[in-house]
Amino acid sequence: MKKILFFATLACITFAGFAQESNKPSVKLYGFIRNYAAFDSRDNYGSNSDQFNMIPKDESLNEYGDDLNQKADILLLSITTRLGLNITGPEFLGAKTSAKIESDFAGFGTSNTVLRIRQAYAKMDWEKHSLLVGQAWHPMMGDMMPDVFSLATGAPFTPFSRTPQVRYNYLAGKFTLTATAMYQFQYLSYGPSETKDENGNIKWSSATSFDYARKALIPELYLQAMYKNNNFAMGAGVDILTLKPRSEAVDNNGVKVPVDEYVIGFTPTIFASYKCGNWGIKGRATYAQNASHLNMLSGYGVTEIKENGEWEYGTLNSVTGWIDVTYKQALKKGSLTYCLFGGYGKNLGCNDDIKGMMFIRGFKNIDSFWRVAPSILYTHNAMQIGLEYEPTTVGYGNMKADGSVDKTHSVTNHRICALLKYNF
């Protein structure tokens, strides 16, 4: 009898141990070591030590007619090397649970490159519903990105952002409906920043901050519907951003007074993709209002200055579109992927005349911009080697009262990118 009790107890402990073990999360490491080199024929707007390349700067002519921005440079960096963890866990409230932590080395401290959070979220999946909470790709771009391997991933022709969010998906057959609420963290809007001159007089300058979104109290909202069937997908969505640029102003008597100033931007987008054998094609069109936080050509400006010091605002609008075509060729060892990317953007200005400051991502006198970028990528097992040619042309000119531009001249940067990447 004692032996029976002993083995029964041992069996219960063993079973409990297995049950407890099965409830532990499963963790899988992934990432890559990425070496990225680029040659540029002139100065550009960019970030991440200029790996994230946007557009070439306008001419800066001296008294002799020399363009001071027409100077070449070259870089070789590994700071976008990535580490990530995909985590799957036990059931919670009837849902399958998962999580992701992803980082790279493209954040900056006082003197050194430091670890940066890219994504960090938890997710619950039911049969037809899912809920994601944390920092992830902005849903406007997460479902479909260009196949270029340049770090900007098609920006400023396409939205680019990662942000803290609460995202709800509902699956209805082949349709997915998405509703997301977000606040800014890494990719920020522009707005007014108060400074004082040597005489103590208040002056306003343009700066980036997440305070403009947080003080509005209303989160950034994104609504989307997407249809997916085998190799074809298409969708449409709209992003709604509310900012409160200032909480106080100075009236005509020089007294600080509280103000309620808001600016609202609506940014709709449509996209589609199709795969047929080794071929693939995808594209997106976006109408942007005050979408500088998405690394796009837009923002807002002051359209009226009232007697009490309060400002009224109007969004600066633009339209962009891109398309890329890919072909994958199998080899005896590995494969070659050919890609041709094309993008175009146009500044549409503001619905009203700008009578004060503008808050926009460095694009104040741009009329239009375009890019055609062919690339080739060789993949064999864990290793990838690629080459991409990325010419970007911008039409700079004279800004009119409504923020649109005329009397343009063209400026072109020729970027040649090389990539060596080891995936694990």
Account of the 3D structure:
The structure is a single chain. By secondary structure, the chain is mainly β. The chain has a domain at 120-378 and 386-416: Porin. It has 3 helices and 25 strands. The chain has helices at residues 2-22, 139-142, 211-214, and strands at 26-40, 44-47, 52-56, 73-77, 82-92, 95-108, 113-125, 129-137, 162-172, 175-182, 189-196, 202-209, 220-229, 232-243, 248-250, 256-258, 263-276, 279-289, 299-305, 311-330, 335-349, 358-360, 366-380, 383-399, 405-423. The strands form 4 sheets. The protein has a 16-stranded antiparallel β-barrel. Strands 2-3 form a two-stranded antiparallel sheet. The longest helix is centred in the N-terminal third of the chain and has 21 residues, at 2-22. The N and C termini lie far apart (55 Å).
Keywords for this entry:
mainly beta; Porin; 16-stranded antiparallel beta barrel; two-stranded antiparallel sheet; 3 helices; 7% helix; 61% strand; disordered N terminus
